[in-house]
Amino acid sequence: MPMMNYDVQEIRNKFPILSRRIDGKPLIYLDNTATSQTPRSVVDAVSSGYLDFKANVHRGVHTLSQEATELQEECRRRVRDYISAASVEEVIFTRGTTEAINLVASSFGSLFPYDGEIILTVMEHHANIVPWQLLQSRRPDLKIRVVDINDIGELKLDDYRNLFNEHTCMASFCHVSNVLGTVNPVKEMIDYAHSRGVPVLVDGAQAVPHMKVDVKYLDCDFYVFSSHKMYGPTGIGVLYGKKEHLLRMPPYQGGGEMIAHVSFDGTTFAELPFKFEAGTPDFVGIGAFPKALDFIEDIGIGNIAVHEHELMEYAGTRMLEIPGMRIFGNAPDKSAVISFLVGDIHHYDMGMLLDKLGVEVRTGHHCAQPLMQRLGISGTVRASFAAYNTLEEVDAFIAALQRVIPILL
Ligand code: PMP
Predict the structure, then answer these.
(1) Angle at Cα 210 formed by Cα 375 and Cα 27, nearest 5°?
(2) In Å, how far are 117, 140, 141, 169, 219 from 137, measured between CA atoms?
(3) Is 190 exposed, middle or buried (0-12, 13-18, 19+ CB in 10 A)?
(4) How much is the pTM?
(5) Using CA atoms, how far apart are residues 95 and 315, in angstroms rounded to an integer?
(6) How many CB atoms sit inside 10 A of residue 53's CB?
(7) pLDDT-derived band of residue 5, with 50, 70 and 90 as boundaries?
(8) Is the CB of 226 within 6 Å of ligand 1?
(9) Does 91 contact ligand 1 (Cβ within 6 A)?
(10) Ligand 1 center–CA 197 separation, angstroms
């Protein structure tokens, strides 16, 4: 059911890039899982950060520095409220999801007991695999155990529960798969892990742009996400961590901002959250991020989710009319991502030709090679939707598929 008050044209008007043309054709941007486009309000705030506020944060008594610091700390309060964290001490700015997971694997991972086991899933992005392997390369006693999926791309929850034993010291999994779109039952998974005394990291990179996330309700130990996938600036992300863990964890990187006192006899570290924010942060991006949160909150994340779901359902139904169409990921609880292949057509060829028609989709392994191995394929074509996509764009995408498929078969 279309929503009466969802004015997609008004939303589109906020994104100058959407009026671009590709090879003379209107841009149809369906690569939102990789990164979403940015509204003018965010770009203006970045611009103002450079033109009006630029001064390093937390370092100066002068007005500019104080204003820049206030913008950054206002963002921290906004993020705290956005994800319902208990305090700003639990909100750490990073370069993105990837850095946040590296921070946890490196720092929290250094506290893992000898012979510890880490539970991951086969649908993880490389960002939630490789940091744990790097930890393992320093700590060969640690083991990684992997949860499998079923035929429709849901995690096998029995498998998950069966992997726990007395060595399990961490579980880390995505909230939403960037390939299959599966929304994992993370609350249930977190509660089970906690019943076994195991902390949990949730990779929320593909969840936060599409659904309400409440870390207090989820009770996760860590939750990570990137601004650039939620209409915000690139180069910044968030690590939410429970204070009790963050207090025990050693710093991840050393340098300015993260210290209380430095001498050659020894150094003491700053309070939370600064202990984990070594060096000059991307304070301009951080200062502009609240505009992206405003954009989402003005529409309402629930309305965005309903709109995207409608696009995905319509696209999925139309795609299945195409002979030879295979869609990977058919869980009932699915976010706005459709990964597919048609017959023997190579995903790369399909992506190249769709681009000639102005349709921007992603092709390849989507940084999820273990999942590709599990599915027995080398990659997929992936179309993904955001707040500004339209049913007309879905029609144009289907028409483009119908044009390119006969050429490639
Ligand atoms: N996890 C998931 C599920 C993702 O989709 C992505 C981005 N594709 C990442 C982690 C990594 O995010 P970033 O590159 O912004 O650090």
Answers:
(1) 80
(2) 14, 6, 9, 17, 30
(3) buried
(4) 0.98
(5) 33
(6) 21
(7) confident
(8) yes
(9) no
(10) 27
